[in-house]
Design brief:
about 25% helix; six-stranded mixed β-sheet; about 240 residues; alpha/beta; seven-stranded mixed β-sheet
Length: about 240
Amino acid sequence: MTPHFDDPIGRAVYDYHFNAVDQPIVVHSDDFDDDTIDTGYLFRTYKQMPALEKKALSLCSGTILDVGACAGAHSVYLQDKGFEVTSIETSELCCEVLKNRNLRNVIHQDIFKFSDQKFDTILLLMNGTGIAGSLSGLEVMLHHLKTILNPVGQILIDSSDLIYLFEQEDGAALVDISADAYYGQLTFQTEYKSWISQPFPWLYVDLSNLENAVEKNQLKIKKVFKGQHYDYLAQITF
């Protein structure tokens, strides 16, 4: 069967939830070998979450916007804890799943086009910087998130520094500084059964470049968690 462009992650999430189909999502990149995402992992419980996510959830307060909610792992946990959670997601199929999981506030919209209300906590996990796509896009994203953040609010966002992929045996990092693009700017395609996505940009960013984008938006940043493999969680405030 010839693959056709669609919403592979949404279809996998929908199939898992409504039809009990547990088939992995394949992730393609020109820079790396194919990888897979276990669809069931997108439905993980709090106990199954890594320490970074648990830390982020423990810092959530007030009204919460879960950006890229996907299957709702974080939204469900927070709503069950009594928080007022809004789950925003570009996938219509994921939104159907979110609603069926009894999440009260589900919005099918691109975060960059959303401006209807403000929140105390904006949560972006599973490499939350990814949707920015590029370093310039990161500045644009933070500028937009600032407009929907309450004055005493916070943005909780995670990422990883991919510099480790370029490290040599002596510990030095071999990065082409003359390259056109930042080493954390990648392009992916996702595939599930016969469906494949259009190529999309995805940003992994080191803490220094994130700090630069934060400062350009006249915001403050604090690293609140350091993972075991170049990953980190940052808290951004006014």
